TrEMBL record:
NCBIfam families: prfC, PRK00741.1, small_GTP
Name of the protein this chain belongs to: Peptide chain release factor 3
Gene: prfC
Organism taxonomic ancestry: Bacteria, Pseudomonadati, Pseudomonadota, Betaproteobacteria, Burkholderiales
MF term (GO), any: translation release factor activity, codon specific
Pfam families: EF-G_D2, GTP_EFTU, RF3_C
Family indicated by similarity: Belongs to the TRAFAC class translation factor GTPase superfamily. Classic translation factor GTPase family. PrfC subfamily.
Cellular component aspect of the GO annotation: cytosol
Amino acid sequence: TMSDVTAAATPESGASAPKAPGAIAREVQRRRTFGIISHPDAGKTTLTEKLLLFSGAIQMAGTVKARKSGRHATSDWMEIEKQRGISVASSVMQFEFRDHVINLLDTPGHQDFSEDTYRVLTAVDSALMVIDAAKGVEAQTIKLLDVCRMRNTPIVTFMNKLDRETRDPLELLDELESVLKIQCAPVTWPIGMGKNFRGVYHLLRDEIMLFRAGEEKADGSFEIIKGIDNPRLAEMFPLEIEQLKTEVELVHGASHPFDLEQFLAGVQTPVFFGSAINNFGVREILSALVDWAPAPRSRNATVRDVAPDEQPFSGFVFKIQANMDPAHRDRIAFLRVCSGRFERGMKVKHLRLGREIKVSSVVTFMASSREQVEEAYAGDIIGLPNHGNMQIGDSFSEGEMLQFTGIPYFAPDFFRSVRIRNPLKIKQLHKGLQQLGEEGAVQVFKPVQGSDLILGAVGVLQFEVVASRLLNEYGVDAVFEGTSISSARWVSGDDKRVLADFEAALGHNVAYDAAGNLAYLATSNVNLRLTEERWPKLKFHATREHS
Ligand code: GDP
């Protein structure tokens, strides 16, 4: 059997017997791995806390907030370290709900919006989109949804803050459909809003869940009244119930009925209304994730697709985080398990380096603390401490040569050129930037002409982090200056001569990134468009895959 082969290949691995394939499949089926996407202030932190309440980790309730307020502190080195130290522990949260294992991955937002934010989404199987119902679709939501679309990630939508005056719910759905280009299937519908918010009507169950402000129940259960025609409702709030009936008719006529297939294809999103701060509608979200969102699915690798319930272990690194102690240069690589069963103490192969490592120290992320992991299955995230030899995109297996694909680098939106005060430190600068580039902290471009290095990032805080880490870890006092560059595209083409001509003609704006890929650094959108038009044989890409 498969298990014999595995055991023979790694004789010293794990003490306990490998699980039967059926047992692995059962563990996979009960896993849900998702991330929350939202614009700052829509309520992601609040909702995360409420979701954790369901796991029984009620002591968490203040923790997420404490971490967030740290974000607004000054960004000197110790502060950044402190924040990152805390966020290592809480950037992955695992909890149980209705006999399911839920992995919630934090997608950093706010000022520390970085490539991590994007790449975390390559490690999830579904996403929860939180919208402030007073504001509707906002800029960061659009960006994050675009990334979800690359893998057709199924999206559940939560319209938050119905206890406030919000925009018209029908108009909100319209905006979602037209701006985000995603079909909306309302599952609950709000009754009133703000001071007159009475609750939500469950369109599939024909039930009304009554809202009471300030009633923050840990189990999120609110009084339920069966049937929209129930006379009790007309007694309780005659005006709102009349309006509800009219709206429900409109909704049935104008919107899409919920369709599981369409949801799983990423074409349609079920929409829930509620109020995170009141824990209202949160349990419905969690149920939707458990009932509808997909368990871990097969993943593409270079040689074949890897199914989650295969016996041998495999996974890939989607994020690297420097540890708290800069003196030790310890890093934690976040690995998403893609197949098999991981067990502490087992030997796995680091495929890029062709090296076998024994994983005796691994961290997992329970809602309440950072703990040693004993076993993990597809969908789970484990943290591998290392000294800088692991990179984003690295694959691990029990020996089979496979490289998981689809872990992208995103064209940066912000650029700086780097200068150093002490020219004797040029070597350290290059070494530092090389390593920080590999870690995914920043993108480094070396123009074909000229000696300045150009740094690129998707969030400006990345530059501050890089500057302080260069100083603290490499002893390099670097100065970052603005540049005329406004966007970057990776360039490919079949004809080597055309590529060489391109390089020669536009030397100042053509550069190589840390992995040796050719890129064009444009000075404006117009400039980019003109260049694309002038070089029709070349392709310009806004993302590139890890290589
Ligand atoms: P994040 O930036 O997306 O993490 O948002 P937070 O969870 O920090 O919420 C932003 C602000 O909105 C905070 O002041 C919250 O207290 C508030 N908030 C969150 N959910 C609700 C809600 O359901 N109703 C109201 N009225 N305010 C809310």
